[in-house]
Amino acid sequence: MRGYSGKLLEVDLSTGNIKEVKIDESILREYIGGRGLAAKILWDRLGRKWEDVNPLGPENILLALTGPLTGFIPGGRICISGKSPQSNGIVGSTFGGEFPVELKCAGYDGIIFTGAAEKPTYLLVKDSDVELKDASHVWGKGARETVLTLVRETRREFESRYRGRGLWKEPSIMYIGPAGEKLCRTAAVTSKWAHAAGYGGYGAVMGSKKLKAVLVKGTGPLPEVHDLDKTVEYMNKISTATLKMDFFRRWGTGAAGYTVGAELSSEPVMNWQEEWHDERNYGVDKFELFWVKRFWGDFGCAITCLKLAVINSGPFKGSITDNPDYENQAYMGTNLGVFKPEGNIYLTYLIDELGFCGIQAGNLLAFTAELYQRGILTKDDLGGIDLKWGDAEAFANLLHMIAERRGIGNILAEGTYRAALKIGEMKGVDATKYAVTVKGIGVGAHGVRSGKDYPRRFSYPCSVQGGDHTSVAYIPLDHGNSELRIILFDSAVACWFTFFSPENWENAWGLLDAVTGWKITPEEWLNVKARRILHIQRAALLLGGPDLKWDPRIHDDVPPRWYEPLTRGPYSGSILDRSEVREEVKEYYAAVGWDDNGIPRSEELRRLGLDDVDGRIEALRKELSYHP
To answer: What kind and span of H or E run contains 202?
Structure first.
């Protein structure tokens, strides 16, 4: 094998047993790594009992998986997966940084965590030296204290244990904050201070396993490649192409905080009650005033789209976060009625510190604020918080309540959709119509009512990752926004931004061949390998359980809010037609090989060698009155 070490670490947190697991090359050829390999492992181990597996129970599996291009393609990335406590399906959620590169240089393609520890624990990996250590002293601590404490003590330990090796650079780390420890379903798995895998809620899975952190230092080389000269050639081609993305390099995604709302009318405003704003105080030039690091890229990345924002004075002094990027500008800003950069930077810093996903937490906060706006929730319900739009401090107080599962926070910690069901039951109203989610996952900050942004009306309803804006359903299937393409990036594992340059789609295949020697064609990927992964994820999503199950006839739909018209901006009056949405959903079903009820067809599954998946979902076909 080339591009891989060919082995994973498997850590049983219940027993403390640690072993190496070999991966057969034939499996890697079919599922590549990252998201694809995660789907294969999860299905093989849990597929027979999927509906009964509690995502927050010890039977769930947590995966951290690299891919063959990790370390070779600009901006190292890793995929976190397992049974999602948000959707009850499989979500491949990625974050960037040095962690995945360190892991590959330590000799591993990923880590499998099973069981649950009795007390707070962290895993320390230094090449083949792997051990579980007590994390009680950082349990309950926020991001900054967790990172500083564990990195410092690990460096001291390395200097003592491996004498004569000189000064040790800090190890890479992934970890959870207090939100994950309290099993908040909107908790993220975080790296550095502001990098996170947020979709899926895997911070809560780490918390359920009492796993506070993983620290890795790899001192070996990356795995050997099939053709080193070609690998270097394609690495340079990809870097050269990304260097041309001057606007993206200069401003990052934060440039969209104003334009997506003002020009496209597709940015969430006050829980998606609107999608347009013309708040020029929210332009990137105003955020730029707080940047202390202008060009920041992850491992080997030529785009350097990241920035570092710091507030040095005023009530939010000490806040430090990345940029914020567009999704956090939208969800921790406009969607909360916060149109001042200082308030947005403060709230983004706080979700980093507490360990939340910015999209999911922002979705949840805005949902709660609208219930307060409409009198469904009262000030007493909120523990005395006057949750007015635009009040950053009020939203910060609510974030702390959720992270601590205190008062109403105990219900909200279950995530927007589950909280809507519970609050609706408590108050005798239908609160789900205010929940802007798909399959339990808050949608990304890109609406569809104006028709001007990249998602289409069927994009979120048909995605196997629910509301994930980085993995949307799309036609034609070979389009740059298609989920079938994104599965490659999440499996390889590579940053999608690298492929905003059209020429890099071809370069990706050249690099994959140079690294692995497998000569996979785009046609083979789109028609066979990506579909295999897609169908496994779709089957797991529809099997669901144990607390929620999705009926595609009902839940393959946009959020109820999006059937209301836009009332402000240049696209005022735009509204979705339910029958047209359903027609497009059915069109996508046919394109990817699903039947009229959204179930993968038997002949399609058997064509791909997924006979076991076919057998497991036969009951779903009967349940939905399927007739061949």
So the answer is: helix 202-208
How far is CA 244 from its chain centroid? Answer: 27
- 142, 168 in Cβ contact below 8 A? no
Task: Give me 90's structure tokens.
Answer: 């499989």
d(CA 86, CA 157): 38
User: What are the tokens at 24?
Assistant: 């057969």
| Cis previous bond, 315, omega within 30 | no
| Residues 23, 104: Cα–Cα separation, whole Å | 14
Among 337, 620, 327, which Cα is nearest to 467's? Answer: 327
- The full 3-state SS of 418-484, as one line of letters, equals HHHHHHHHHHCCCHHHHCCEECCEECCCCCCCCCCCCCCCCHHHHCCCCCCCCCCCCCCCCCCCCHH
Query: What is the chain's percent helix, strand, coil content, to nearest 5?
Result: 45, 15, 45
Q: How many CB atoms lie within 10 A of CB 586?
A: 18
This prediction has a pTM of: 0.97
By the 8 A CB rule, do 307 and 322 touch? yes
- Other Cβ atoms less than 10 A from the Cβ of 607: the count is 14
Contact in structure between 82 and 540 (CB atoms under 8 Å): no
Decide: 92 and 490 in contact? Cβ < 8 Å: yes
Model confidence over 476-509: pLDDT tens digits? 999 999 999 999 999 999 998 888 877 888 899 9
- Closest by CA to 335, choosing from 377, 274, 388, is 274
The C-alpha angle 558, 200, 374, rounded to 5 degrees, equals 50
The residue type found at 41 is: I
The beta strands (E) that lie in 1-55 are given as: 7-12, 17-22
C-alpha to C-alpha distance for 604 and 618, rounded to whole angstroms? 13
In the DSSP assignment, the letter for residue 355 is T
Summarised one tens digit per residue, pLDDT across range 70-94 is 999 988 899 999 999 999 999 999 9
Which element (helix H / strand E) includes 602?
Answer: helix 602-607
List C-alpha distances in Å: 444 to 70, 220, 434, 466, 468. 25, 38, 16, 10, 6
Confidence of residue 383 (pLDDT cuts 50, 70, 90): very high
CB atoms within 10 A of CB 204: 30
CB 394 within 8 A of CB 388: yes
